[in-house]
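in:
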């Protein structure tokens, strides 16, 4: 059986214990405040990030791993493993996935690099699906096909509360930002072809939350089973309320709570919350 190296980047926001147990290699993206760069998961945690957001005169930016980061990793893994499987955040929002491919090619280490076409915990779902098959002794090609199939079933809905982050990221122009703020518009975002785009714009917080649950219900109520992540940006109590609400309504969902870590929170803003999920096929573990 091939010795598989598992690789992802920090925006999967994997549980540290799971990553350590499975020996997953995590390449960090970075958050930049002024002239100081912090490697996500290594040099900055969420509490420090939100403190710096409040204290810094200018908003943070982000940067992807360098080609050198991947070359160094793959040089090391080449000596220990037969093949690698890497899952990275969408190529539609970051160049990380392409840099990973370039690094593997430069080193000559065979890595199946999967563009998740999404970010945050859905990446962990994809990675875990592959690990389950590997532990069942399935061949690498079958594992990769299954991971890509899980990727293609993945969906997400996110409710953004602070429009200033979307404005700074170029997803709202100034007029949309001003009018949206005045009218209390709350965008509901999703992924299309690996890019974050508005699905609907709903007036008032209460109606927007209700609409997210309505859209989610339409997606999951008729599937036999689904894995779901509730993902939040520094609103843990609300995330737990959402989890309890799902528990009261559904008995066929496997639900976890995760976060938008510093890199992704830089772009969506504090208070953002939503779902990432995929339906399971009949008999799928």
């Amino acid at each position: 059986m091939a010795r598989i190296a598992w690789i992802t980047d920090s925006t999967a926001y994997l549980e540290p214990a799971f990553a350590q147990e499975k020996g997953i290699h995590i390449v960090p993206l970075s958050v930049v405040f002024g002239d100081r760069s912090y490697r996500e998961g290594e040099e900055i945690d969420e509490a420090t990030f939100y403190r710096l957001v409040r204290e810094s005169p200018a908003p943070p930016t982000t940067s992807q791993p360098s080609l050198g980061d991947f070359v160094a990793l793959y040089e090391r893994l080449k000596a220990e493993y037969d093949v690698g499987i890497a899952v990275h955040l969408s190529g539609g929002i970051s160049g990380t996935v392409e840099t990973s491919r370039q690094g593997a090619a430069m080193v000559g280490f065979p890595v199946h690099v999967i563009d998740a076409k999404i970010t945050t915990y859905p990446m962990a779902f994809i990675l875990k699906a592959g690990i389950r098959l590997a532990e069942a002794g399935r061949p690498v090609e079958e594992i990769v096909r299954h991971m890509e199939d899980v990727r293609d079933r993945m969906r997400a809905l996110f409710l953004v509360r602070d429009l200033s982050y979307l404005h700074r990221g170029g997803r709202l122009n100034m007029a949309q930002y001003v009018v949206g703020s005045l009218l209390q518009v709350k965008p509901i975002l999703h992924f299309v072809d690996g890019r974050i785009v508005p699905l609907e714009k709903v007036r008032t917080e209460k109606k927007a939350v209700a609409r997210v649950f309505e859209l989610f219900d339409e997606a999951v109520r008729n599937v036999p089973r689904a894995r779901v992540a509730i993902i939040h940006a520094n609103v843990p109590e609300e995330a737990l309320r959402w989890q309890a609400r799902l528990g009261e309504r559904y008995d066929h969902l496997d639900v976890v709570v995760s976060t938008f870590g510093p890199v992704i929170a830089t772009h969506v803003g504090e208070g953002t919350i939503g779902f990432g999920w995929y339906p399971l096929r009949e008999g799928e573990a």
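note: Confidence is low (pLDDT under 50) at residues 171-183.
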